[in-house]
Write the structure tokens for this entry.
Amino acid sequence: MVLRIRLARFGNKHQPFYNIVVAQARCVRSHFPPISNCDLPLLRQHRQPELRANPRSKWVGWISARGSKPLEVIGTYNPLPAARTDASDAVSAPRAYKDITLDKVRAKYWLGVGAQASDPVWKLLNLARLVEEKPKTYNKA
Amino acid sequence: MAPRIQSRSVSNLLPYITSSSSSTSSSIPSLCSSSQSSRYFSATPAPQTKLRRQMFEWLSTQGSGLKHHTPGETNYLRMADGSQSNRPFPNNMTFISEPVLSEELRNEVYFRVKEQKKSPRAVSVELGIDMNRIAAVVRLVELERRQRDKGNPLALPYARAVHEMVPTTPLAQAGERQTYHEPINDLPVHPATGAQIFYPVPESRPFTRVDAGRVFSGAPTLEKKVSDKITHPSDLVEDVIQKPGSIEWVGKGDNARQVLQPADVRIPHPQLVQLARDRAAFPEERRTVTQRHTERLERQEKAEKERAAHAAERRNRNTETIEPKDSRFSFRIKDAVVSEQTVGKNGRAPWAPGRRYGVPTNDRTRGTVKIPTRVNV
């Protein structure tokens, strides 16, 4: 049972906007697929003995859908850069900025209990100084 | 099918403006005399009408001055007394060319705001330019400078041409008085004042603009103790600028609104009212009046600056800006805190961080009017 911290796309065409969410990476092994992701905690509580009793059940879960309801929304990420309006005396225009909202306390908690951040979220969490930067390919080589 | 006009030489059919009136009068009778069928475009027997003759007369006398324009100036028809007109089309009296800022004046605005560090409010009063325009000029000159520094070409011939097409407000020479570019203390009509209200007031009771504002916003009448302290509506200016939160609220929920303040408070330059009142009250003490005005202005500007700084500080308290070395962008990380106030009891309040699940966006719900239905002044 892996938890993932990942992005869930919102917004319209050409106007992406992401929620940073904590979601199940994979659904539980069970006789039948869960109705939705929010039923997962329920399933875990009530059907655990049954699951134990029948470990070789037929249905194998899937990676929870991008648009499905997550366990928790811990922030947002707006990838569209906004131009800075506070013009300074500098010759070059100031850098455009991208907005990130993040509940750092919850993010730390979920990382602490073993949630794995996806690559894009890893970069954002690295910016927020919650995780170390992932080694790049040329670093590994 | 209508008969086509046969091709023939039309060299001297239409005498153009450049040809003198004598040559035209000689050429046209010869054309007429040839035959009836030779005139294709005109049924007029007279070769030269009165209006036409007058036109050529005008072109050779008064109009000759307009043939070549002075560079850097408009070339409009002059008034009867010879003064410069601002109407480029003399038959359309409602069309008036409004002046634009001259190059020198706009550079002066930038110089006073950015180099001399004067407030836009003070510069607006000095040069007679609306405060919004002052802000726009500073932004645009900033942009122009940036383009220059980058070495990008500027559309200077275009700017020169436009300045020759519309009148400009010049910058006053040293010792001269600056011409006001536009009225600076205009007040937009507040929608709350649109209602016609019949409000009987006893003759014995003073009813001022402060009271009128309260009636328009449906607020209860001021207590006598409080209203007696206000000798003039502009007395409230200082309080409102120092503490904008002190403006009273009426109504509940969506209908909550601030009590409409008198025009003396809402105009762009309320301190000018106080200056005029001081000048009228103490006509002999000009220096003291000016000093009081300067002090008042400084006090108000200080309060405004403090408030702006405080607001910026509060905004940035939870925001961290990170500028990675290998990125073109900077990232603003705002710390959202999960509590009952921020995300609601079930953690899914509409104001919680993130877009909501299972809730259609507002613009898709049935019956939602997408175009703005009101303007907040």
User: Anything to note?
Assistant: The radius of gyration of chain A is 19 Å. The first strand of chain A starts at residue 3 and ends at 12. Residues 34-53 of chain A have pLDDT under 50 and may be disordered.
